[in-house]
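Today's session is about reading a structure prediction critically. Students often jump straight to the picture, but the first step is always the sequence itself: look for stretches that repeat, for charged clusters, for runs of hydrophobic residues. Only then move on to the predicted structure, which in these notes is written as discrete structure tokens rather than atom positions. Here is the chain we will use throughout the hour.
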Amino acid sequence: GETEDEEDEILPRKDYESLDYDRCLNEPYLEVLESLDNKKGQRYEAVKWMMVFAIGVCTGMVGLFVDFFVYLFTRIKFHVVQNSVEDCSEKGCLAISLLELLGFNLTFIFLASLFVLIQPVAAGSGIPEIKCYLNGVK
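Below is the predicted structure for this chain, in token form.
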């Protein structure tokens, strides 16, 4: 009908996914909510909030993990290359320092490409997709 045509015009892709934060008000869900007594309802809400807290903590830990290792690998790379530049400045072999820097960067590129090969979602920042997913598609 007409509403299906309107949806096709609004959504260019059929594979959109999103979270919908509106309360689910279908009949089976309302029956489940009505069957819960006060204690079970409180436990249900507490478990939901604990899950939100756990997801937030895990997300923060992943961010901390990524930040720490980016800092660590960057420090290692520049420490090794700086030592090589200092040693080779006197000997006239600065090309080796450049090759070391190139080797580190190619290693990081290879690892990033390997992660993208394993999981293609790792290719981009994903910020627009996450915003779309969290805001919902209306």
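Discussion point for the tutorial: The two ends are 18 Å apart (CA to CA).
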